[in-house]
Specification:
- This protein has about 250 residues and is mostly helical.
- The protein has one domain: Neutral Protease, domain 2.
- Helix 4 crosses helix 5, helix 4 crosses helix 8 and helix 7 crosses helix 8.
- The chain is globular, with a radius of gyration of 19 Å.
Length: about 250
C-alpha cells in the first residue's frame, strides 16, 4: 500500500526535471519566478490580448517581495497598479509556474489559482477592467460611482465593486484554461458569511467567479465580453443581499 501511494504522489507533482525554471522543496524559486516573468512577459501579454480580442495599454510586469508592501495580505500573489504596473510575488509559495507542468491526474484535479502564469493573467484582467473604465470615461458612458477609476467608494460593509472585479478576473483565468473551473462548495447565506475575513478568498474570488459565470458565458457566446463588462461597470455593484441572491442583481442590470 505504501508503494502505491508513493507512485501516485510522483505523478501528482510537477515534472520538475523537465521544466526550464528551477524548483526548491517543490516550489518555484525566487530566481526562477523572476526569470520566468522576464522571459515570458511579452508573450503572456500577447496571448492575453488574443484571448480577449482587444489590446491592452502599455503595462510592465515585474517581481518583488510583496510582504514589504503596504496593506500586504498573506494570500496575495500579485498586484496591479493604475500606473500600468503589475508586480508578481517572488516568494516561494506558488504551486508551479503553469498548469501545463502537472501530470494528467494533477492537472485534472488542480483547483487553485496559485500558479505564476495564472496570477499574471489575473492581474492582466485587472489592467483590462480598469482600461475599460478609462475608455468609458472618454466616451462619456455612465459609470457607477463605486467603480470610479483610481478610487473605490464603498457603502458601509459592502464589497460589491471588488466582488465584481475580482470575479471577472477569476472567471477569465478559468475560461482561458489557466486553472480548472472551481467546484463551489460554499455559497454565502448571510451578511456575516460575506464580511467574515476568514471567507474573503472563497467569497471574493471563487464564489464571485461562480456568481458571474452564466452572465459571462453568455457574453462569450455572443462575442460581447467587453460590452457585458461595460454593463457591469455602468450599474451599481451588487449589495450584500444581491450577492446572496444573484437573481436580484441580474434582474436589475440595464
Amino acid at each position: 500500500m505504501k508503494f502505491f501511494i508513493c507512485i501516485i504522489f510522483l505523478f501528482a507533482v510537477p515534472q520538475q526535471e523537465k521544466y526550464p525554471y528551477p524548483y526548491k522543496n517543490g516550489k518555484p524559486t525566487t530566481r526562477g519566478i523572476t526569470t520566468y516573468v522576464k522571459d515570458n512577459e511579452r508573450n503572456l501579454i500577447e496571448d492575453y490580448q488574443e484571448f480577449i480580442k482587444d489590446t491592452i495599454d502599455y503595462v510592465e510586469i515585474s517581481t518583488d517581495d510583496l510582504t514589504e508592501y503596504t496593506d500586504y495580505d498573506s494570500l496575495e500573489l500579485g498586484r496591479y497598479y493604475l500606473s500600468s504596473e503589475i508586480i508578481i510575488s517572488n516568494q516561494t509559495k506558488f504551486a508551479a509556474y503553469e498548469l501545463s507542468e502537472f501530470g494528467k491526474y494533477k492537472k485534472k484535479t488542480f483547483e487553485s489559482n496559485n500558479l505564476v502564469r495564472s496570477t499574471i493573467m489575473h492581474e492582466l484582467t485587472h489592467c483590462w477592467f480598469n482600461q475599460i473604465i478609462k475608455e468609458m470615461h472618454y466616451k462619456k458612458m455612465p459609470i457607477s460611482s463605486e467603480y470610479t477609476n483610481g478610487l473605490r467608494i464603498y457603502p458601509l460593509n459592502e464589497i460589491g465593486a471588488d466582488f465584481i472585479e475580482e470575479g471577472v478576473c477569476e472567471y477569465m483565468i478559468q475560461k482561458k484554461g489557466e486553472i480548472n473551473w472551481y467546484k463551489i462548495s460554499f455559497k454565502p447565506k448571510t451578511f456575516n458569511d460575506i464580511l467574515n475575513k476568514n471567507n474573503k478568498y472563497v467569497v471574493q474570488y471563487k464564489y464571485a467567479s461562480y456568481f458571474l459565470k452564466d452572465y459571462l458565458d453568455k457574453a462569450f457566446e455572443e462575442n460581447k465580453v467587453k460590452e457585458s463588462i461595460e454593463v457591469l461597470i455602468s450599474n451599481r455593484p451588487p449589495t450584500n443581499q444581491e450577492i446572496i441572491k444573484p437573481e436580484l442583481y441580474f434582474n436589475r442590470l440595464k
